[in-house]
Amino acid sequence: MASSTTPSPVLKQPVKLACVQLASGSDKAANLAHAAAKVREAAAAGAKIVVLPECFNSPYGCDHFPSYAETLLPSPPTEAQSPSFHALSAMARDNAVYLIGGSIPELVTTITTTTEGTHEEPKKTYYNTSLTFDPSGTLLATHRKIHLFDISIPGKITFRESDVLSPGDTLTLVDLPPYGRVAVAICYDVRFPELATIAARRGAFALVYPGAFNLTTGPLHWKLLGQARAVDNQCYVALCSPARDMSAGYHAWGHSLVVDPMAQVLGEAGEGEEVVVAELDGDKIEEARKGIPLRDQRRFDVYPDVSQGAVAAKEP
Ligand SMILES: NC(=O)CC(=O)C(=O)O
Question: I need a labelling partner for 199 at 20 to 30 A (CA). Which of 114, 184, 233, 267 fits?
Answer without folding.
Answer: 267
